[in-house]
Automatic annotation (TrEMBL):
Domain spans labelled FERM: 52-148
Full protein name: Moesin/ezrin/radixin homolog 1
Matches recorded under InterPro entries: ERM, Ez/rad/moesin-like, FERM_CS, FERM_domain, FERM_N, Ubiquitin-like_domsf
Subcellular location, record wording: Cell junction, Adherens junction; Cell projection, Rhabdomere
GO molecular function terms noted in the UniProt entry: actin binding
SUPFAM superfamilies given in the database record: Ubiquitin-like
Native organism: Tetranychus urticae
Domain of life: Eukaryota
Major subcellular site: other
Pfam family, one: FERM_N
PROSITE patterns named among the record's database cross-references: FERM_1, FERM_3
Amino acid sequence: MVIGGIFSVASRAKKHIQRKDAAVKKLLRKCTLSAILASSSTTIQSKMPKPISVRVTTMDAELEFTIQPNTTGKQLYDQVVKTIGLREVWFFALQYVDSKGYTTWLKLNKKVLSQDVKKESPLQFKFRAKFFPEEVSEEIIQDITLVG
């Protein structure tokens, strides 16, 4: 009788496990790969920082860029001079109007958004000469620097 009882318990346990396995398989069918990817991409997108639009006005063009919230002044400046093809970068800088209305030079070692740039979209900067050499012919090596 004991052996019969053990087989009965074992048989019920086996049927219970089979029902659980069937339920798990059914659940797995509902969780398709596309559903999993859709939920994970939503999570990834919500954690990605929102890009910021920037407009840089030069003497003869308006340049549009998109930067990340942690972009430094140097990274933005490097992007500008690379876009216009300027090698003599030490004479120039980016200016902006701060929240009080003062014209200010962008600090290269700080994040763009941590500076007091007027919060508008796009952020506005001007590409300007910051340093003027005493003897231009000795200092300038690239003709594009003199154009204007």
